[in-house]
Amino acid sequence: MTDKPKREGRVLPAVVTVDLVIFTVRDDALHVLLIERGKEPFLGSLAIPGGHVRDNETLDEAAGRELSEETQIDSEQLHLEQLHSYGAPGRDPRGRVITVAYLALGPNLPTPMAGTDAKAAYWVPVDSVLSGHNKLAFDHADILGDALERARSKLEYTTVATAFCAEPFTVSELRRVYEVVWGFPLDPSNFRRKVTRAASFIEPTGERRIAETGRPAALYTRGKAQFLSPPLLRSIDATAAQGTTAPPVQQ
C-alpha cells in the first residue's frame, strides 16, 4: 500500500480582510452596494466594499467599521451576519489574502459615500450584476452569488425579511421584499394568510395607512420570533406563482 503523495508548498504569511455584501430594496428592486476601486489591483473596476482587519479588532468589529464607513449607518441598525471565508490561492494578485465575507440587510439605505480606497460607491441592481453587465473584481461575483442564495434561503426559514422594511410596514410591502429577493410574484391572499398566522413574525400596530386607492392598509412591526414556523418555502410558492397574472421579477 503506497502513501498518497503530499502536497508541498511554502508557508506564506496571509493577510485577513473582511468584505461586505450589502443588500437593500430600492426602486422596487434588490440592490447591492458596489464601489469603484481607486487603486490597483483592478483600478476602476467594481467590487463589494471591504478592507483589512486591524490588529486591535475582531472580525465582527472590522465588518461593522467597514459598514459604517461605506454607508454611514451603524451596524446595530441592520441585520449583519458572517457569510463564509474565501482563501483560494491567487484570489488576490497582491499575495495570499483570506477574506471573511459578511451579509448585511437593511431597508432603503441612503446614498453611499466612497471610502478611502474607492473613487465612488453605488447602489447597483443585483440583476445587472448577475447578467454579467457589471463585472466584479477579485472573486466578488462568487461572493455575491453565495450571499444572494443565503438571503433567499433565510427568507424561507427566518424572519429576516423584516430587516428590509422600515417600520411600520404593510403586509404588501413585506410581500414585495419576498418577491424581489426570490425573483417571482406571490399570491397576495396566500401570503397574507401565512405571515399573519406565523407566530410572532409580525405584530399589528392597530393603525392603518391611508392609500391613494383602495382601503387603508393595516400597519405592522417586527415580531420577536427569529425563525418561521411553518417556513415559507420557495418551491411551494414558486409553483403557486405560476398561476398568477402578475409579471415575474426579472433575474
Provide a concise account of the structure shown.
This is NUDIX domain-containing protein. The protein has 251 residues and is of the alpha+beta class.
Please give the share of residues in helix. Answer: 25-40%
List low-pLDDT spans: 245-251
Largest sheet: 7 strands, mixed
End-to-end Cα distance:
52 Å
How much is the average pLDDT?
89
Structural class: alpha+beta
Q: What is the radius of gyration computed over CA atoms, rounded to a whole number of angstroms?
A: 21 Å
- H-E string: EEEEHEEEHHHHEEH
Protein name: NUDIX domain-containing protein
Domain Nudix hydrolase: 13-148
Pfam families: NUDIX, WHD_NrtR
InterPro entries: NUDIX_hydrolase-like_dom_sf, NUDIX_hydrolase_dom, WH-like_DNA-bd_sf, WH_DNA-bd_sf, WHD_NrtR
Give a description of the structure.
This protein is α+β, with helices and mostly antiparallel strands and 251 residues long. It is built from six helices and nine strands. It has helices at 59-71, 126-130, 140-157, 171-182, 188-197, 234-241, and strands at residues 15-26, 29-37, 46-47, 50-52, 79-86, 97-106, 118-125, 202-209, 217-222. Strands 1, 2, 3, 4, 5, 6 and 7 form a seven-stranded mixed sheet that branches. It is elongated, with a radius of gyration of 21 Å. It starts with 14 loop residues before the first strand and ends in a 10-residue tail after the last helix. It comes from Salinactinospora qingdaonensis. Residues 13-148 form the Nudix hydrolase domain. This is NUDIX domain-containing protein.
